[in-house]
Design goal:
Elements: H1 4-9, H2 13-18, H3 20-26, H4 33-37, H5 50-72, H6 88-100, E1 132-136, E2 146-150
Helix pairs in contact: 5-6
The protein binds iron/sulfur cluster.
């Protein structure tokens, strides 16, 4: 085994205390948040303003919390749910694109319109170029293996 410390990390009391949900998801005891958000309806209009999207997002987060609790308690099974056409996960994608119109995704806060090809400090436009991706074995033990993606243009 390349990282034997990774195998035991999920039993470490400090990891269990700091990342309880993460440990349960890795051990298939709880459902990952992105799967839950895919099951939460988000009732936004066909041509929504950003303000509307944020308002619907707020409500959908409350619904997500309720569903998460029901799933955690075993009152509902994820396999019994049907994904809505417009979900909280779709809504998050939409909001992410709105943010790209005046990008403040990181502390640089360049305010560039990445959807129109403007480049900020990171020089990443609408889509990432990927130079490599792989399972990375060099992170902290509790997150080994990690799926790592490198963009050739990222400057640190
Ligand atoms: S550096 Fe990139 S991600 Fe950060 S705010 Fe600027 S354009 Fe957005």
């Amino acid at each position: 085994m390349v990282r034997p410390d990774a195998a035991s990390a999920l039993e470490d009391p400090k990891v269990l205390s700091a990342l309880p949900r993460y440990v349960d998801v890795v051990k298939n005891r709880r459902i990952a948040k992105f799967l839950i958000s895919r099951m939460v309806p988000a009732d936004y209009s066909d041509n929504p303003s950003t303000e509307e999207l944020w308002m619907v997002h707020e409500k959908a987060l409350a619904s997500e919390a309720e569903l998460e609790e029901s799933l955690d308690r075993g009152k509902v099974k994820i396999g019994d749910l049907h994904p809505p056409t417009r979900s909280l996960l779709h809504l998050k994608h939409l909001l992410g694109r709105r943010i790209l119109e005046s990008c403040v995704l990181c502390e640089r806060r360049c305010m560039k319109n990445r959807l129109r090809g403007e480049l900020g400090y990171c020089r990443i436009g609408e889509e990432m170029k990927v130079s490599s991706y792989f399972e990375h074995m060099g992170e902290e033990p509790e997150v080994v293996p990690s799926f790592t993606v490198y963009d050739p243009r990222i400057r640190t």
